[in-house]
Amino acid sequence: MEITKRNKFVEFIKNYWMYVAVAVVVLVIAITVGVLAGGQTVPTTAPKLEFSLPMNEANIIKDYSSTELQENTSLNQWEAHLSVDFASENSDVFAVLDGTVTKVSYDVLNGHLVEITHSDGFVSQYCSLADEPLVSEGDKVSAGEKIGTAGNSSNAEIDLGNHLHFTLYLNQEAVDPNNYLDLQNK
Ligand SMILES: [Zn+2]
């Protein structure tokens, strides 16, 4: 009985070893692909960036809206507002993350502007600042560091008075700061 069973097994292997070999190869490939795919999920489990707020105890005077148009009385037009406007008694403006100042400029529409490039594809932009921002291109700044003062230098939003027009970009696209900054608990 035993011998017969063993013989049957040997017969089976002789006849089907090719299939067994293919099955083993497929299994190895599946495990390899699984491990590689698992490796790609690492970024989602990486520690989340901790954003600080660009102004203290500020009111949001105009929120982010990508689909709903909002009236801009300064330019007399309806437009999407891919930024958040803040106003506060204390007009200090702070960097929201560690980074490097990549632009300090002035133009009539944006007013005085500071742009900071951070890690993970984030760029923050601060417009309508008062004259003479405190930073220069190439400066390294830390989250919470004062970079300037909110002003009324942006002609595109001059009706809003002294305020900060804050924009957050992720991979060159303006994103809703509400999804990254704790604006409700400001
Ligand atoms: Zn604005």
Question: How would you characterize this protein structure?
Answer:
By secondary structure, the chain is α+β, with helices and mostly antiparallel strands. It is elongated, with a radius of gyration of 29 Å. The protein folds into 2 domains: 2-45; 59-185, Glucose Permease (Domain IIA) (Distorted Sandwich), CATH 2.70.70.10. The protein has 2 helices and 12 strands, in the order ααββββββββββββ. The mean pLDDT is 88. Strands 1, 4, 6, 7, 8, 9, 11 and 12 form an 8-stranded antiparallel β-sheet that branches. Strands 2-3 form a two-stranded antiparallel sheet. The chain binds zinc ion. Zinc ion binds next to loops. Zinc ion (ZN) is lined by residues 62, 81, 83, 85, 157, 165.
Sequence stretches where pLDDT stays below 50 over 5 or more residues = none
| Name of the CATH homologous superfamily of the largest domain | Glucose Permease (Domain IIA)
By CATH, the architecture of the largest domain is named Distorted Sandwich
Order of helices and strands: HHEEEEEEEEEEEE
Shape: elongated
> What name is given to the CATH topology of the largest domain?
Glucose Permease (Domain IIA)
**Small molecules (ligands, ions, cofactors) in the structure:** zinc ion
Number of domains: 2
Mean pLDDT: 88
Judged by helices, strands and strand pairing, the structural class is alpha+beta
**Annotation field: number of helices:** 2
Cα radius of gyration in angstroms: 29 Å
State the total count of DSSP E strands.
12
- Tell me the span between the first and last alpha carbons: 81 Å
The portion of residues assigned to helices is 10-25%
Tell me the strand percentage band. Answer: 25-35%
Main sheet?
A: 8 strands, antiparallel
User: In CATH's first tier, which class of the largest domain applies?
Assistant: Mainly Beta
